[in-house]
Structure formats: structure tokens, C-alpha cells
Known about the structure:
Largest interface: A-B, 24 and 21 residues
Helix content of chain B: under 10%
Low-confidence stretches of chain B: none
Radius of gyration of chain A: 13 Å
Radius of gyration of chain B: 13 Å
Oligomer: heterodimer
Low-confidence stretches of chain A: none
Number of strands of chain A: 11
Shape of chain B: globular
Amino acid sequence: xxxxxxxxQALSIxxxxxxxxxxxxxxxxxxxxxxxxxxxxxxxxLILIRSNEREKHSGRLRVTLDTSKxxxxxxxxxxxxxxxxxxxxxxxxxxxxxxxxGTSLTVIP
Amino acid sequence: EAGVVQSPRYKIIEKxxxxxxxxxxxxxxxxxxxxxQNLGQxxxxxxxxxxxxxxxxxxxxxxxxxxxxxxxxxSTLKIQPAELGDSAVYLCASSTWDWPGEQFFGPGTRLTVx
Lengths: 109, 114
């Protein structure tokens, strides 16, 4: 399967702390995207990183990509209660995307 | 700008009954996707349209699932007959021609098959 796997499956932190979640995949990719899903809602695009990029920032989000290790990480700094959601990586292979299993993040006020 | 619209939001049916889901993508988005999402899992692609053409339906169980996108805008996904294992959330997403592109997701239809 080309589906990515997120780690950890669940993460619980205090408000203000940083949250880091990881995504590992099996095959070469063209790009990788991160999405957020609030309970009972659709997915919302957060950030895209191409295979020739190593790091990208967007507000409180920092994404890294290590193609040699076939892994990516998403860092959310200064977390807020509103960041509570599930986070998915989606690996772009050819013209297809494959979503991972997700990390459930709980930010405790 | 309106987002991706899906209806119904919830559907409960008996097994062996037919069911249909409707999706209206964001205006101007040529690419439309249908995903299936099981509880605690990520979305899995069922079918992808470029305008009215289904360019990737390799994961669509064609014995019971069908989809159409008439005039390259709205799309309908149908299951006939539904099975217990079809209980899941069915997500619709759309994007522009740009590749790789950000996909905009609808809220999904939660299907329960009894």
C-alpha cells in the first residue's frame, strides 16, 4: 500500500505546548500534503510540500520532508484548544493522492 | 464563495436498499473526487473526474457502486444494493486543474446500513 502512516495515532497536550506528528510512507512521492479534520466535518488543506523541498512554514505550522527516510513531520507551535482535530498526511504519487490513517490531537485548555 | 455541498448529511437505510449521494463542487473546479472514509481511517479514493470523464475509478466496486458527473458539474454516487459493510462517511472533494492541487472537501454523508 502507498498509504502513509501517521504516528502517534493519538496525542494529548496542554494548550500552549507544541504538537508534533509524523508521517511515514513506502514509495517515492512527488509531494505531500497535510489536512485537518474536525469531528464530523470534511478535511481542510493545511500545507503542501514538494519532493524537492525540505521545510515549509505557514503561520504556526512547520512541515519537514525527508525523502531519504520517506517521512514527514508536522509541528504545530503554541497549540490552542481549537487545534483539536485529526490530522492526515496525503502522499502525492503520479496524479493520485493517498491519505494516511491520521493522528488524533487533543489540546487541553 | 460557497464550498463543496453534499446531501444528504445523514442517511440510514436497510441492507439491500439503494442509496444515492449528491455533490455540488466549487464553481470552476474541473476535478471532482469521491472518497470513502471508515471510522478512524483516512479517506480512500473511489473515483476521480476530470470534467465529465472518470479518469480513475480503479477503487470503485463496480458491481454495486456507480457514479456520474453530468455536464461536468454536479455528481451523484449510487450504491445498489447497499451492504452492511458500506456504512461509512462518503466525502466529495473538488480542485482546479493545477497539479498538485489543494482539494476542497465537503462535509460528507454519513451512511448507516442496518
